[in-house]
Design a protein that fits this description.
The structure holds 2 protein chains of 2 kinds.
Chain A: E1 3-8, E2 13-17, E3 22-25, E4 35-36, H1 53-74, E5 82-87, E6 91-96, E7 102-107, H2 110-116, H3 126-139, E8 148-155, H4 158-177, E9 183-186, E10 192-195, H5 201-208, H6 212-224, H7 227-237, H8 241-252, H9 255-261, H10 263-269
Parallel strand pairs in A: 8-9
Antiparallel strand pairs in A: 1-2, 1-4, 2-3, 5-6, 5-8, 6-7, 9-10
Chain B: H1 2-14, H2 18-27, H3 29-40, H4 48-64, H5 72-92, E1 103-104, E2 107-111, H6 112-115, H7 120-145, H8 150-156, H9 161-176, H10 178-187, H11 192-199, H12 203-208, H13 210-221, H14 225-238
Antiparallel strand pairs in B: 1-2
Helix pairs in contact in B: 1-2, 3-4, 3-5, 4-5, 8-13, 9-11, 9-13, 10-13
Classes of the chains: A alpha+beta, B mainly alpha.
Chain lengths: 270, 242
C-alpha cells in the first residue's frame, strides 16, 4: 500500500492511502508530499468500561442485596426445606421446599426405586405426590389391606413440621379411606398410630356375619327404622329359624308378626 | 500531587487540540526520551524512529487517558513501552535489511546512502515531491475555508471498509452530478439532502463523515492531479467515473 504524506506534526503525520483513507501515523521524519509504502498507524484507544474499586464495591453490595432479597421473595425453591420418608416396604424420600412443593424424589431401597420409576414429581405438591405414590403402590401390589405405612419427617423447623405433619396425616387418611385399610405410623418423637379405617360397615358384615357383635349393632337399628332393614339383617343374625320366619312373614304379608318374631335380637342384645 | 493535577488538566485540554497536544509533548520530551532510553538502552537521538514511535504513543496516551486509568505519566510510560515492543516486532521482519543510513565499510563518515550514485531518478523524485507538496498546501488552504484541517479529516475518515464503500457511493454520485460539487463550492456547505436522496446512503453515515466527504469532493472538483492519480486505480475499481 502506498501513502502520500499530507501533513506533518511533531508527534504524528497525516497520510492518504490509495483507497482514499486518511490516517494518522508515526512521523518518521516525513516530508509533506513524500510517498511512502509502510506506516506505523496511530491506534485509537477506546474509552473502556473500567470499574474503580469504589464502583466495584458498590456493585458488589448491590448484587449481594439483590441476592438476599431474591432469596427472601422466592425462598430458595430448590433448596430442600424438609424431607419426608414414606415407607411401606418400598421406601422413598420426598424432599419438599417450604411451600410444600416436591423438589426431589428418591427411592431409598430397590422397591422404592421401582415405585418411583418413570414418575414425574415436577410441579406437584407433597399431597399430590403422596396420592400418586399410594395409587402406584396399590397398582404394583405393594400396598394392600393390613399393611402399614410409616411416615417420618425430617427438617430443622419443628414448628413447620408439626403443622405439616398434622395436615399431611389428615390428607392421607382422607385419601386412603375409600381404598384400603392400612395402618399409618408416624415414627418420630411422639409416634402415634392411626388405624384406617373400620367405618365401611357393609364389608365388615360380610366378613363377620355370624358374630354377636353385629347383632348388637343392628338391634337398635331394627327398632329405629324401616322394616326392610330388619328383613335383611334378621336372617344374618340367625341361622335357620329366621328363614322360616321370613317366609312366614312374606306369606302372611303381615309386618306386625315380624316384629313379634324378632325376639332373637332382643334376647341376644341383653 | 499538585503536579499530577496540573498534568491531568493539560492532558484533558489537549485531547481535541492537536497544537496543545504537541506543546505538551514538547514539554515532556525529556520524559519521552528517557522512556526510549530505558527500553532500548540507547539514546533516542540515535534511534530516530523509536523516538517518533514514542512521541506517537505519548499522543495516543493524551487522547486515550481518563482519570480512571490512574497517573497520567504511568499510563503514558506503559503505552510507550507497548508501542515500542510492537514496533520492534514489526521491524524484525526487515531484520536482514540494511539501513541506508548505516555506515559503510571502514569509513565512519560515509553512510550507505552516499555510495549510491545520484542520477536523474532522484531529481525526478525530488521534483515530484515538490509538486505534490504544492498541491497538498493548496488543498489544505482550501479546506481552511470550510473550517477543516487535514488532521480533522484523518479523525473523520471512515475506518471500516463497509463505511468507506458507502462514502465512496455518495462521492461517486456527486462526481456524476456536478451540480452538487458546484453547490458545495458556492455555499461552502455540503448539500446533504440532495446527496442522501441521490445516492441512497444513510444520512447518519454521511453526517458522521461530513468532513471527509467534503475533502474528497474538493479533490475531485478540479486540479489536484497528483492526489487524484494516487487514488486513481482504486477509484476506477470503486466505480468512480472521474
Amino acid at each position: 500500500m502506498n501513502y502520500i504524506v499530507m501533513e506533518t506534526n511533531l508527534s504524528y503525520a497525516v497520510v492518504l492511502d490509495e483507497k482514499g483513507r486518511f490516517k494518522k501515523v508515526a512521523n518518521l521524519n516525513y516530508e509533506v508530499g513524500q510517498k511512502i509504502n509502510d506506516v506505523y498507524e496511530m491506534k485509537e484507544i477506546k474509552e473502556e468500561f473500567y470499574l474503580s474499586k469504589k464502583m466495584f464495591a458498590t456493585l458488589a453490595t448491590l448484587a449481594a442485596v439483590f441476592v438476599f432479597v431474591f432469596s427472601l421473595i422466592f425462598d430458595m425453591p430448590m433448596t430442600p426445606y424438609a424431607s419426608i420418608y414414606f415407607s411401606i416396604n418400598p421406601e422413598v424420600r420426598i424432599d419438599v421446599n417450604k411451600k410444600n412443593e416436591v423438589i426431589n424424589l428418591k427411592g431409598m431401597n430397590d422397591d422404592g426405586k421401582d415405585l418411583i420409576l418413570n414418575y414425574n414429581y415436577k410441579d406437584k405438591n407433597l399431597d399430590k405426590v403422596s396420592d400418586d405414590l399410594i395409587d402406584k403402590a396399590i397398582d404394583m401390589g405393594y400396598l394392600y389391606d393390613g399393611r402399614t405405612i410409616s411416615i417420618s419427617f425430617e427438617g430443622k423447623d419443628s414448628e413447620w413440621i408439626a403443622t405439616t405433619k398434622n395436615e399431611y396425616s389428615q390428607h392421607i387418611n382422607n385419601y386412603l379411606q375409600d381404598k384400603v385399610s392400612v395402618t399409618i405410623k408416624f415414627d418420630d418423637e411422639d409416634s402415634y398410630e392411626i388405624i384406617i379405617p373400620v367405618n365401611n360397615n357393609q364389608f365388615e358384615d360380610n366378613h363377620y356375619g355370624d358374630s354377636d357383635y353385629d347383632d348388637s349393632d343392628y338391634g337398635p337399628n331394627n327398632d329405629g327404622v324401616t322394616d326392610y332393614d330388619d328383613s335383611d339383617y334378621n336372617p344374618n343374625s340367625d341361622d335357620v329359624t329366621d328363614y322360616s320366619d321370613y317366609n312366614n312373614s312374606n306369606n302372611d304379608s303381615n309386618y306386625g308378626s315380624d316384629y313379634n318374631n324378632s325376639d332373637y335380637d332382643d334376647s341376644n342384645y341383653y | 500531587m499538585q503536579n499530577e493535577h496540573v498534568i491531568i488538566q493539560k492532558v484533558y485540554d489537549s485531547k481535541d487540540d492537536m497544537h496543545a497536544a504537541d506543546e505538551l509533548i514538547r514539554e515532556y520530551m525529556p520524559f519521552i526520551k528517557s522512556e526510549v532510553f530505558k527500553f532500548t538502552n540507547k539514546y533516542s537521538e540515535v534511534l530516530q524512529d523509536e523516538h517518533s514511535i514514542a512521541m506517537l504513543a505519548f499522543h495516543e496516551a493524551i487522547k486515550g487517558y481518563s482519570k480512571s486509568r490512574g497517573s497520567f505519566l504511568n499510563y503514558a510510560s506503559l503505552l510507550i513501552k507497548s508501542r515500542l515492543i510492537d514496533y520492534q516486532r514489526k521491524e524484525k521482519r526487515h531484520y536482514n535489511q540494511l539501513s541506508l543510513d548505516e555506515t559503510y565499510g571502514d569509513e565512519e563518515d560515509t553512510a550507505l546512502i552516499d555510495t549510491i550514485p545520484a542520477d536523474n531518478v532522484d531529481v525526478m523524485q525530488e521534483h515530484n515531491v515538490q509538486a505534490t507538496k504544492e498541491e497538498i498546501i493548496e488543498l489544505s488552504n482550501q479546506l481552511r475555508q470550510y473550517g477543516v484541517s487535514l488532521s480533522d479529516v484523518a479523525d473523520n475518515s471512515p475506518k471500516q471498509d463497509r463505511t468507506l464503500e458507502k462514502c465512496r457511493q455518495a462521492i461517486n454520485y456527486a462526481i456524476e452530478n456536478r451540480e452538487i460539487i458546484d453547490e458545495l463550492l458556492r455555499t461552502k456547505k455540503l448539500p446533504l439532502t440532495s446527496l442522501v436522496n441521490g445516492s441512497n446512503v444513510d444520512r447518519k453515515t454521511l453526517e458522521r463523515h461530513r468532513k471527509y466527504i467534503v475533502t474528497m469532493l474538493l479533490i475531485y472538483s478540479n486540479g489536484y492531479e497528483i492526489i487524484r492519480g494516487h487514488l486513481s486505480h482504486i477509484v476506477r475499481k470503486g466505480g468512480y467515473q472521474a
